[in-house]
Structure formats: structure tokens, C-alpha cells
Amino acid sequence: MFSRSVARSSSTLVRGFASSARSNRKVAVLGAAGGIGQPMSLLLKTDPLVTGLSLYDIRGAPGVAADISHVNTHSEVKGYEKDDIKAALTGAEVVIIPAGVPRKPGMTRDDLFNTNASIVRDLAEACAEYCPKAYIGIISNPVNSTVPIFAEVLKKKGVFDPKRLFGVTTLDVVRASRFLGEIKGADPKDIKVTVVGGHSGATIVPLLSQTAQGKDVSGEAYKALVNRIQFGGDEVVKAKAGTGSATLSMGYAGARFANSLIRALNGESGVVEPTFVKSPLYESEGVAYFATNVELGPEGVKKINPVGELSAEEQELLKACLPDLAKNIKKGVEFATQA
């Protein structure tokens, strides 16, 4: 199935989402009836910055829309399925895409490629036709490959804008702050860990040395923490025993990214989120897309921040990341260009 920043003193904090200047913002969720799509759609319904919510899936989205439309917030919700994608996307300013099959025990993100690659390609074609100016957030795994697929389709259609296409890697920093907080006995909201690279396994590079609470983590504790951040998704897949993957935490992370993006589109300054975007940072090494902290603005990507100073351990992690990431990106590009 298709499946905080701190609020300013004058802002309102509603269910964890910071609000800024009110503007009409229609958000479309493609894969809204899936494991990620449902909780994310619910959270978006509670976001005061979302005034229109368009939910699409091959089946089930009208039911999800009817259900969350009863939540007493001001936004209007409509559900679409099967052949109604034109209506779902028309007028959408932000599109978040969790569509695709989830991981199961023993599956890698690459195992998802054959199915999810085709889904993402088809959705990219629809977005190119019906909302070519929208800001697109890709959750569908493997993100390291699906973002390049989406980009290549948009290029073919003549509507690619690298500032408007994002791979949602927010869950990596959400996990990192939570896991480090557990070790330190600190509130995760007070911990900000920069995570760079990609969005799977060894391509996920947490920069603990750049965080006050993380710079003194060393030895086996450091190795275990890095491994848990990189493979936290496996922990959830195993715990769910074949019934799903990290859907609830990913739904939260996707909604958080959408909120940050909308705040930036509304003119709020200083909005920074980690995201996998077209980037010059390691392009000379065959890595045309890279996740790092990105300052968002009315145009989408405003500034791609460098990775900064790395510890010796982080340099080794990055060295291991780049070749795998280059292969993932190449796989996505080849799929889209040969299709």
C-alpha cells in the first residue's frame, strides 16, 4: 500500500508544533493510509500551519481522512484514492511521501528498492504534472536512492528545482538525541546531535563530538551508541516481529520536518533541519546528494551547512559512508534514466 524548534514568545505552541505567521498551506500526503501515513496525517491535522490536508493512497485514504477530519482543529481534510491523484495534488504546496512497502525482519533498505523505486517514479511523474512547484519531502525508503529517482523524473519533465526536493532524515537526529539523552540522563529536547551522510546503516554519520553531551562518550559506549543510531530501524523491525517497521516515530519525524518547512516558507528565519538534498559538499567524490543541517527559507533550501570539524572516529565513519552512498545514488539515477 502506498503507504522544535523553540517557539518565539509571540508564537503559539500547539501539540508540539511551533506556529508562525499564518498562511494558507495545503499539504498532500501520498501513502496516507499506510503505517507512517496515518500517524503523520494525524499530527499534521493538529499543526496550526496546515490549513488544507490532502490524503492520497491507492485505497483507504478517504477513510483515514474521514476519521481525522473529526479532530477539532481548523484544517480541512479530504481523502483520495486510486485514480484521483490529480485532485489530491492540485494546489498542493508541500507534498510528503511515505508511500511504499515497509521493511520486514531480515530485509535491508536495498531489498525494498525494486518495489518502492517504481512507486516513487510514478508519484514523481504525477507531481511533475499536477504540482510542479511544490516542495517535496521523500520518506519512502531507500531514501538514498528514491530522492535521486524523484529528481531524475523531474529533470525529464523539465521541472526539477534542487531547492524544493528533500529526503526526510529527521528521524536520525530524533533517535540520536533520544539515545544520547538516555545515556546522559538528560532531556532529549535539550540535546541536538548533527547527523550527516545518508539515511541507512553505515551511511548515517552522527557527529557526537559537536554536541556538548556527546563529546565525552568514548570506547565501547561510543561504538554502541553510533551503532544504535545507525541501525535503530532494525531495532524496531525486530521488536515488531514482522508486523511493521518504524512507522510511529517516522510519522512524528515527517510531521516535524513538514512543520519546519512551512515555518520557513512563511518567512520565519533561522529554521534548520537535517535533510538529504542535492549538495556540492562531496560531489567530487560521486556523492551528488548528502544529508546535513540545512537552513530552510521561502525558496526551500536556503543554505547547506558544512559538516564542520570531525573527530578521528567521525572521519572514519564518513570515509565508510561515502562509497556506499555513492552506490545508492547511482542505483537510483540508473533506475530512473533507464526506465
TrEMBL record:
Q: Which GO terms describe its biological process?
A: malate metabolic process; tricarboxylic acid cycle
- Residue ranges occupied by any Lactate/malate dehydrogenase N-terminal domain in the UniProt entry: 26-167
Q: Where does substrate bind?
A: 103, 109, 141, 175
| Catalytic residue positions | 199 (proton acceptor)
Molecular-function GO terms, alphabetical: L-malate dehydrogenase (NAD+) activity
Q: Which UniProt keywords apply?
A: NAD, Oxidoreductase, Tricarboxylic acid cycle
Q: What is its EC number?
A: 1.1.1.37
Establish whether keyword Transcription is in the entry: no
Catalytic activity, per the record?
(S)-malate + NAD(+) = oxaloacetate + NADH + H(+)
Task: Fetch the InterPro entries from UniProt.
Answer: L-lactate/malate_DH, Lactate/malate_DH_C, Lactate/malate_DH_N, Lactate_DH/Glyco_Ohase_4_C, Malate_DH_AS, Malate_DH_type1, NAD(P)-bd_dom_sf
Domain annotation Lactate/malate dehydrogenase C-terminal: ranges: 169-335
**Which residues participate in NAD(+) binding?**
31-37, 57, 116, 139-141, 250
A GO cellular component term found in this entry reads: mitochondrion
Origin: domain of life:
Eukaryota
**What family name appears in the similarity comment?**
Belongs to the LDH/MDH superfamily. MDH type 1 family.
Q: How does it assemble?
A: Homodimer.
PANTHER family in alphabetical order:
MALATE AND LACTATE DEHYDROGENASE (PTHR11540), MALATE DEHYDROGENASE, MITOCHONDRIAL (PTHR11540:SF73)
For this entry, the protein name equals Malate dehydrogenase
Question: What is the species listed in this Swiss-Prot or TrEMBL entry?
Answer: Kwoniella pini CBS 10737
